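QUALITY CONTROL LOG
STEP: pairwise intake check
CHECKER ROLE: data steward
CRITERIA: each record must contain a sequence immediately followed by its structure tokens, with no blank fields

ENTRY 1 OF 2
RESULT FIELD BELOW
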Amino acid sequence: MSKGLSSFVIIAIVVVVVLAAVGGALIVSHMHGSGTIPSPKPQNTTNSNTTAKNVSSPSSNLTISVPGTPLPYSKATNTVYITLIAEDISQPFNLNGTSDGKMVIYVPTGANLNITFVNEQSLPHNLNLVMNNTPIPNSADIGLNGKILFQLGTNMSSYQYSGIMNGQSVNGVYKDIQAGYYWLCCGIDTHAESGMWIVVVASSNVSAPYVIVN
């Protein structure tokens, strides 16, 4: 074979090898692609069949929807648990920070009221359940505004001037409240008239107790 022909053959072989290499690289590049491997689509962790449920107070054994803030309630004993505090705020004649009947407690007819009264004020205070005959206290003596049914921190002979002092508390139970409209108020002269009273409504339309602050 002549020298010129040999050179041509060698060049042709080199070209074929180069083309094969380039073609292989292109194939490999196409197989891998230019982007990243997409991550799996996140799973939806929300169950569309989940429904809300009512949660009862630890002190209660009844769970039910009510129009206001539920109060602790034992259905087994038909007992409503009420805590009222004469709070140490700028208005000394308050119960749980409210005055002038703005707090209204609704209870089932026939319920027992387990009431705890706490005095955080420097003034003495007591608590009375009154079947009132006036819309609001309008006398220094609450006894002139209705019938006193139950008392905490005092008695019928001294409710107009005696009560528990700062840091003291007292508890008692009023049983089988009948349907009607009542006050829970301080009996010391002028205290209820000055705003220290809330409303209690007992009704057969109430199946579980609750409180509303207007």
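ENTRY 2 OF 2
RESULT FIELD BELOW
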Amino acid sequence: MGEVPHEPIWKRWFEDIGGQVYRGCRPETQEGSDDCGAHLHSLGPDAPGGPIAAQHLFNVYTHPPKGFEEFGKGSIFRGYEISQRAKTWWLYSSAAMYALVHAAVHNPTNGFFVFLSESCVPLYPAQLVYLQVIHEAKSRLNPGCRGAPDFGRHPSPPSYRRRLAEDEEHMEWHEVTSGQWVLLNRAHALAVDRHPQNRLLWLRDESYLATLLHTLGLENETTCDWQGPTYAEWWPPGDYHPLAYEHFGAVGGANWGGAAPYTRMAETCPLFMRKVMPAATADVICLLWPASNDTDFPDLS
């Protein structure tokens, strides 16, 4: 992760929840309803330090490349770079994923852990994403669930099979491929943090977390969803990269600014999407904030 081309989107996304806190939702007191929309309220004026510091619903951790010192002075992500960074290259960012978990899991207020790339954008307002995530019990990934679609399971090359065989003398390892941009609950994040660092970090990034949870026998504690919380369109099938979105068409009649009670979505509904190109930033802003004509934002690509 280096510069974030969609920073204008994230800036407004965090600004929308400035000063808000969660009061807790007790569906059993609401006649079986999952309506938790009234349980976000404001503490008052935004705190100094930028839109991320002014909100209380999300903690942010970034892992820029090792040679990337810090974000620029005008960036909302400045100061959120983790100190311990790993060298990464194409297909192999497992050590960076571990470093992010390690940095975040020691904060006891972090209950869920969402991995996003610089090409990801939110599909819903921050309030809705927060309420959805905190009411999900399972991690969103597929660690080799029995009967689940076999989208990401591929034969391991000989070098992988040797490493899997040699890695643990008394345990059978199977490489399982899932989506890379996943959601972990706290129990699974702790399991990742406590796992011996040198065991699985050599796996490809889309195999690392899925294989780790698979070896721990935690398949029934996940959604078995290959894509996780982030939608991507893999076309043509078998390609190494998902389809890149350069433009979004107008959404007729869309108006997400109205008040409505919150109803929890299915755990397979995507909350984010990738791979969104910088040219589509204005389209995403119009989708999330349809009443806004503010398209005069800096080009950070």
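INTAKE CHECK: passed for both entries
DESCRIPTIVE NOTE, ENTRY 2: The first strand starts at residue 20 and ends at 22.
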